[in-house]
Design goal:
With 234 residues, the protein is of the alpha/beta class. The protein is built from 6 helices and 9 strands, in the order βααβαβαββαββαββ. The structure holds S-adenosylmethionine (SAM).
């Protein structure tokens, strides 16, 4: 699994490593945007096969069941190349309205071309969903993007995501698990942070989500694990 590989200019994702834990600040969004604009096409190519991994069908299948009786949009707050929304639309919930948001114009272009009329894709920031109406959404997806924001911003983002969800709305979040910054293997000096399962769970609860599931799974070929959280706005 691998959504991270994409971050590197030259895969393989194995070039990722974890450098010693020190107090570091995440890179500003200008640098993050630049990183993904540069790597978007390669990322999309990688996701063409990654999206077939069981973790995606399992996660998205569970989500479709959980929101079967919840009306509203599914919002991917860092949709990248749009593979998750595409998968959700094609395999799990074809009638659902979909909205993808991403910081990187190149990622937005990839997602638009992949999803065409099946979803609305907008440039934006996961920390501020702006024009998305309160209570209008059935689910929020956030896969492998919170490593670009700090803990205070994560709690604020979770509160913002909760704002746009209706009652019974779901959050599905994946993040690099652990402590300390991610080393992009010399391909980028962007600073991005791993977070522990306990932190992610605590932040979701601070934002008033009920945490229904939170697991840590190894990531094949990587020196890092991922944390997957599913929660409900009651
Ligand atoms: C590793 S990619 C993951 C993409 C997608 N979620 C997936 O799993 O395939 C991280 C994505 O987060 C986006 N991103 C980073 N910071 C963001 C922000 N503040 N708001 C919205 N998107 C952001 C990047 O542009 C990039 O597309």
């Amino acid at each position: 699994m691998v959504r991270f590989a994409l971050d590197t200019a030259t895969p393989p994702c194995h070039s990722f490593s974890v450098i010693p834990s020190v107090v570091m600040k995440v890179s500003p969004e200008t640098k993050v945007r630049e990183l993904y604009d540069k790597s978007a096409d390669r990322y999309a190519e990688m996701m063409d096969s990654e999206i077939d991994l069981p973790v995606y069908s399992d996660t998205l299948g569970r989500l479709a069941e959980r929101i079967a009786d919840v009306s509203g949009t599914v919002v991917d707050t860092s949709c990248g190349s749009g593979h998750m929304l595409t998968r959700y639309h094609e395999h799990h919930d074809p009638k659902r309205l979909l909205l993808g948001i991403d910081l990187s114009p190149r990622m937005v272009a990839c997602a638009r071309s992949r999803l065409a009329s099946s979803a609305t894709i907008r440039m934006g920031d996961m920390r501020d969903l702006g024009s998305v109406e309160s209570g209008s959404s059935a689910a929020i997806l956030s896969f492998f993007a919170i490593h670009h924001i700090d803990s205070r911003e994560i709690v604020a983002a979770l509160r913002e995501w909760r704002r746009v969800l209706g009652s019974g709305g779901q959050i599905v979040l994946a993040a690099w698990e652990g402590t300390g910054p991610i080393d992009y293997g010399g391909e980028s000096d962007v600073v991005a942070l791993r977070y522990r399962k306990e932190e992610v769970t605590t932040w979701a609860r601070e934002a008033n989500f009920v945490v229904d599931r939170c697991v840590v799974d190894p990531v094949e070929g990587m020196p890092m694990k991922a944390v997957y959280l599913e929660g409900t706005k009651e």
